[in-house]
Amino acid sequence: FFFFQAEDGIRDFCLSRGLGDVYKRQVLGNFTKQREEGKTRQRYINDLKENLGLLYGYNEELIELFFQTFNPAECVQFFQANEESRPVVIRTNTLKSKRRDLAQKLISRGVNLDPLADWSKVGLKIYESKVPVGATTEYLCGHYMLQSASSFLPVMALAPQMNEKILDMAASPGGKTTYIAQLMRNTGLLVANDFKKDRCKSLQFNLQRMGVNNSIITNYDGRKFTKVLKGFDRVLLDAPCTGLGIISKDPSAKHQRQLIDVKKMSHLQKELLLAAIDCTKKGGYVVYSTCSVTVDENEWVVDYALKKRYVKIVECGIDFGEDGRTKYLDRRFHQTLKMTKRIFPHVHNMDGFYIAKIKKIKDGVRKTDAEERELAQQQNGKKKKKGEKKSEKKEGKKAKKQLKKINEDEENDNEEEQIDEVEEENNEEENNQEDQEAVSYTHLTLPTIYSVQISVVAVSLKKK
Q: What is the pTM of this model?
């Protein structure tokens, strides 16, 4: 590929800096044929890094970071895109106006505009204007909001519904918050939180200007919001980030941001995302977004949440954008991160953005694999113990029943023996009585018999 495609002024700058040789060559695109003998590919890449840093004003750490994120050709395109301003975009406030009516009013004021894109029904893209877009009567009356096209996407992914309970954890200045209220049609409850008290003022102004009346503003650290309120149907976390996707708006990031800033932000984002998940009820949704293009602030944070909470990635409902990454350097992320979306300035002509939609499966902290195995073993052990106790109880009951039967049988046997003894005693007594009666009868009858016989004999003698 060409080193870059530049205007004449940039080409003159390169030539004056001695970069003409690198500018003219197409070495990396056809390395085997175009390279110099003895010069390695890594040396060409190092030269390219040095020249890009000199040309565009990035520090060495950011150059290295972007070369890890993009291939060399894409990295050059990214740097070029950051030198160009993005189109001015406004979002129609359907609580007060319709896009067609708003467009007619602005055109009558000398504004040249078009619908933003097919994916948005409320966006308008402004090419030029004879009046300040942020000072028109329609703006002051809250008929529209100045908002980048990329920041529409997290709210679209959140898909707020009427009469729901929704939290915007980092709400200021209120662009996404007012869009959520607009989709909710001013029903339900919308909690707009921001950590910095000074930023809550602009948030309050925009909510009032846009006619939002279903919201309350809070000033808490998002990491501790679980102590304030829970049970939300949906939570939007547009997390604080390094802003490395919106360098065209803030060129100072080129030399101010360092790798340590990315690491610090990544740590903060992990804490905020876990808190956002804990604030959501079971079956609810969390949308995580940043205006950065680094993997450390995006896929790595979401992958961390997948390991720490019972959640899963779901489709964003966004038809364009590049898929999230599952590989970065030596890291490997969960395969479902392909369902997250990335927006790049050099690809979509929009601010760099990342969007991930997460569904909460159940409450609680997810255990690691080892902890889950131990827990399963403990539960199995408890089940075995319970089973053993139950079997012991059953055996004990059976033994008791058997003992009862044995005791009852013994008692029955004893009773039968006692009955037999009693019967024997009764029989003996009856026999004794019969014997006595028989003896007494013989003693009584014998004399009478003899007397009868004697009397008979005497009578017979007299007759003779």
A: 0.77
